[in-house]
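so my prof wants the structure for this chain in the tokens format not the other one, which i didnt know existed until like an hour ago. anyway here's the sequence
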Amino acid sequence: MIESSFCLLTGVGPKTERRWWQQGIETWREFLSSSSIPGIGPSRKAVYDEALGQAQAHQAREDARYFGNKLPASEQWRLYEWLRPRAVYLDIETNSFGQITVVGLYGKGASHHW
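here's what i got, hopefully its the right format
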């Protein structure tokens, strides 16, 4: 999913992203290999090409923090599939007084709680 996410580009939101998908530009590779994209000029295309090249480099380095900073909070769910094999999920339960009652971790098929 991350390679189909264009919301990390400055000024691109879900509407623009959906329009590109409908135009057949569904991945970073397809965007980069297109000489032009309907609705954006050559200078903006060059800026986006540079940004997507950087995104590819960060993905190759497994730099999740980069994408966490680039994607809006509402779109960070897109990282799940990419991060799932090495992710750990943290759950902290509290009572009505705000005191921690249970801490749970889940990752790589195992769960632990304290």
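also thought this was worth mentioning. The chain has one domain: 2-84.
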